[in-house]
Write a structure and sequence with these properties.
heterodimer, A: 113 residues, mainly beta, six-stranded mixed sheet, B: mainly beta, seven-stranded mixed sheet
């Protein structure tokens, strides 16, 4: 069974800092990988989706990379802002059942003003 | 704007009672997912439907949980009887899932139903 791990579990940084969130997965037979943001008491919002054939995706201040062979993805957030404070989850979908996502437990980010 | 809606947002009930959670997927989406989120287990897939037909419910405790899609605009998740260990946030997500598109399995989540079973 696919295991998805996110490190660190929590992170606190001052505003303006660049930061990296890590995601690792045990089975490289993935269809794609998604990064989500979850605000307290809210659902998940999709941030970036990387197909298994891609190396990275960018959206504004966010950049996600994927190294399928080593089972790793990183989410890079440039010039962090207090509004970035949330829990970030990564999820991988299975190559042979792309509807099924396996989620990590998330990294809780706090950006201090 | 198009979004997934869920009702109720919060539910407190006593052990043994029946609980029904409802989800309205985004209009035009053909796949609906039910997830459960707890501190201990994180986010787990319970079941999902394609074009209203159940495709996978292997994550769902069969003895007390049931999921249905009476029509394309409504998905329900029922627990009978409920137990304290069912306390969690239940999320519904929908997507227009079809192979071949760039974002063909992207899922859109609702705000969740927070269930507390006393």
């Amino acid at each position: 069974k696919q295991e998805v791990t996110q490190i660190p579990a929590a992170l606190s940084v001052p505003e303006g800092e660049n930061l990296v969130l890590n995601c690792s997965f045990t089975d490289s037979a993935i269809y794609n990988l998604q990064w989500f943001r979850q605000d307290p008491g809210k659902g998940l919002t999709s941030l970036l989706l990387i197909q298994s054939s891609q190396r990275e995706q960018t959206s504004g201040r966010l950049n996600a990379s994927l190294d399928k062979s080593s089972g790793r993805s990183t989410l890079y957030i440039a010039a962090s802002q207090p509004g970035d404070s949330a829990t970030y989850l990564c999820a991988v979908s299975h190559l042979y059942n792309f509807n099924k996502f396996y989620f990590g437990s998330g990294t809780k980010l706090n950006v201090k003003p | 704007d198009a979004r997934v809606t869920q009702t109720p947002r919060d539910k407190v009930t006593e052990m043994g009672q029946e609980v029904t959670m409802r989800c309205q997927p985004i209009l035009g989406h053909n796949t609906v997912f039910w997830y459960r989120q707890t501190m201990m287990q994180g986010l787990e897939l319970l079941a999902y439907f394609r074009n209203r037909a159940p495709l996978d419910d292997s994550g769902m405790p069969k003895d007390r949980f049931s999921a249905e899609m009476p029509d394309a605009t409504l998905a329900t998740l029922k627990i009978q009887p409920s137990e304290p260990r069912d306390s969690a946030v239940y999320f519904c997500a929908s997507g227009l899932v079809q192979r071949g598109g760039v974002r063909d399995n992207e899922q859109f989540f609702g705000p969740g139903t927070r269930l507390t079973v006393l």
